[in-house]
Amino acid sequence: MTETTASRAAALGLPDTGPPRFDSVDDVRARLADVGYLSDESIAGVVHLADRLAKPILVEGPAGTGKTQLAKSVAEITGSRLIRLQCYEGLDESKALYEWNYRKQLLRIQAGQVSGEGLALAADEAPGSSWKALEEDIFSADFLLTRPLLEAISADEPVVLLVDEVDRVELETEALLLEVLSEYQVSIPELGTVRATRLPMVFLTSNNTRELSEALKRRCLYLHIDYPDLEREREIVRTRVPGITDELADQVARIVRSLRTLELRKAPSVSETLDWARTLVILGMDSIDAASARDTLHILLKYQTDIERASKELLTAGS
Amino acid sequence: MLDLLSGFVTELRDAGLPVSLTEHLDAAEAIHYIPLEDRTALKYALAATLVKSSDHWRAFETAFEVYFAHRTLTEAGEEGEEGADGELRESAASGSGDRPGRPGMSGAGASDSMSAEELAALLYRSLLIGDQGLTSVVARQAVNRYAGMEPGRPVGGTYYLYRTLRNLDLEGVLARLLEEARNEAVGGGGLTPLEERLIADEYQARIDKLRQSIESEIRRRLVEDRGAEALAKSVRKPLPEDLDVMHASRDDLAALQRALHPLSRKLAVRLTRKRRKGRKGALDFRATVRRSLSTGGVPVEPRFRHPRPAKPEIMVIADISGSVASFARFTLHLVYAISSQFSKVRAFVFVDGLDEVTRFFEGVDDPALAVHRINTEADVIWIDGHSDYGHALRVFNERYGDSVTSRTSVLLLGDARNNYHASEAWVLGELQRQARHVYWLNPEPRDYWGSGDSIVDEYAVHCDQVVEVRTLRQLERFVGELT
Fold first, then answer.
1. Are residues B429 and B347 in the same domain?
2. Whole-prediction pTM value?
3. Measured distance CA(A314)–CA(A290) in Å, rounded
4. Is B192 in the A-facing interface, judged by CB distances under 8 Å?
5. B303 and B384 belong to one structural domain
6. Beta bridge partners of residue A209, listed in sequence order
7. Is B64 found in the same domain as B188?
8. Does domain A2-92+154-224 have CATH number 3.40.50.150?
9. How many CB pairs under 8 A join A and B?
10. Which of B149, B287, B370, B471 could form a disulfide with B303, with the two C-beta atoms 3.0–4.6 Å apart?
11. pLDDT digits (tens, 9 = 90+) for B371-420
């Protein structure tokens, strides 16, 4: 098994990345559970595969189902540093990959002028060696500002790269990611190509506000995280909310499941479920009745119409 | 195994999923790393490498069940499962002697070991305690008894499923379970509405599980009978965006409705983006100079003013008579979901009379609700409630013709089946002279245009474009081009 990882790394011209991070799917599951992230078969399976195939994972799903948390938890269990690239509209390569520190470059040139060593600023005046030296000097690594993608590639320690909400960038900007994702390298025209010394684990998350390009999808393993089923949600509530009784956790999970079957503008997410459960614990409740549910419903649901519909459907008789 | 995978990939492609060669190779590599006897792991490995959109999951799952559910690599697992079933069944059920071997296709009723009453009792119990193993036993027995499967018939199994479910009378069972729960709670003061709802949802979830398990049981037997390739073809599920809106079943419509929401959101985001970055505005000299101060007076980064492109005005005139109602519903929904992209949207609906329905959309943030109100409240019947495009157009021109200006795009939705009334196509000609564009969206396949009482060709002369829009995909493309 290790051979294939090694050979893939070799094919990419990368050093062997050492032993795989996880032994088996169950290993992933157990270690994720240790840090309080309850995975299921599919999550653990894909993480395991991503490690073996040295491929990035594209995580999609509704908001608040733990996509970002997954990357954080994987970083935690593998003892890696998490490098996060938050995407937004207008993100460009100077924010994602690298940027020349042109202010510093200007200073360097001016400093040279003052000290008299680099008088030949304009190349046509004296195309001597001093200009060449200066040019080489100001386009060296010292004047390079590394941004998350380059940082993840060039890091010496193990890292997990999280590209958050990748659907927010424009289609054209997505292309910036491609080289990093498939070859684990970054080409800088003035410096040459920077290759990864260790393969980072890469997570991309998307809220599916637009279709990602085929090219990007092709390079990734795809993982869809949906709302958890009843048992898993109950477990999540139990692990993440200290001091909750089993009965209350069960009730919370069941009410949330019923809410999700209604046609709401925004179904309650896992993080909202947790907030709700915490609130109930703080209020000192052991079980939920209709009145307390109605009073705290606004924590789960964020639209007035949703709240009205939910209380009508769930809390009044004859529905 | 690799051959099987190739067959599977071909099937996925036939079902419309875009699976590239690289993804195929990835899948082939991925299966090295998972234990082959683990069906779930295999499923997720294949899903992660081959399926890159959650909309395609249903199609993938169906194909997966057909291909991998019960073949070669699971022979061993299968036996174990049956053994467990047997034990369970013996302890759970009446212990009515020898358990049936693998129920072959040789007349499904022959090897029945459970009577109808026993099965009903077992069903009740399995739902009451919600046990997974028991549920699958019930599914197997129910299919044995009720599906009446005939070998060799080229069907997808929907009918078998229907027959089994009808005989099981799940609604009756659900009612009994709820009754039971209510009776139990009488001592403790009865059930509050909340509790009752929660219990009902719980049982509903268990019933859904049973239904799935029956479905896969039927599918399994069909695979045994006819082989995966043949069956895959008959159970293939089209992707939601490819469903033919006019002939969609109720389930399909629900799927469409679900697909519509993210679709309209995506479209809105894309259009906003397109608009924002499409053209750059004029150079903002002041801002550029100010910016250049930080680079020693060199204007490294020019600044531009924000562009303000004109937004078009839209008038939608939709036929909402029975034949094309669902199509009109989706289009209205979509147009309104992206109404921020237009400076003004007005909607009209007609059957043989015409009514403006813009008011239903105002101040409502859920287009679905507005569309529902249109169907119940709009005044669209003039004489007999059969489509009359000619009259509707004439009324439109009389009442609203003046508000059609050179900035307006007029969208007409309908199949132009006019029940042999007068076409009054000249009205459309008038409109075209005033409006910026006139488009006709026809939900019928292009081949049917002009057949029978369809007079779309008469109107087509006066339209800038007549488009066939049968699926959400086509609809999305059209609306995207409109702005």
1. yes
2. 0.71
3. 9
4. yes
5. no
6. none
7. no
8. no
9. 117
10. B287
11. 777 777 777 777 777 888 888 888 888 888 888 888 888 888 888 888 88
Q: Range of B272's domain? A: 256-278+310-482
A2 touches chain B (CB under 8 A): no
Q: Which of B52, B267, B277, B365 to mutate to test the interface with A (most CBs of A within 10 A)?
A: B52
Strands in A159-164's sheet, in edge-to-edge order, are: A81-86, A159-164, A201-206, A57-60, A221-224
Judged by a CB distance cut-off of 8 A, whether residue A224 touches chain B is: yes
Which of A218, A223, A316 is the closest to B22 by Cβ? A218
**What is the interface pTM, i.e. ipTM, of the complex?**
0.80
| Domain ranges, ordered by start, for chain A | 2-92+154-224, 98-143, 230-312
Q: Which residues of A touch B364 (CB under 8 A)?
A: none
Q: Report H helices in chain A.
A: 2-11, 25-34, 41-53, 67-77, 93-96, 102-115, 129-138, 148-154, 171-183, 214-218, 230-240, 246-261, 270-282, 290-300, 304-315
pLDDT in tens, B286-301: 888 888 888 888 888 8
Same domain, yes or no, for B339 and B433? yes
Q: Is residue A235's pLDDT more than 80? A: yes
Q: Domain total for chain B?
A: 4
Tell me, yes or no, whether B261 and B397 share the same domain: yes
Digit-coded pLDDT (tens) for B210-228: 888 888 788 777 777 777 6
- Cβ neighbourhood burial of B313 (10 Å; 0-12, 13-18, 19+): buried
Q: Which residues of chain B have pLDDT under 70?
A: 69-114, 151-157, 186-191, 228-231, 233-243, 245-250, 261-262, 266-280, 307-310, 323, 338, 340-341, 363-368, 483
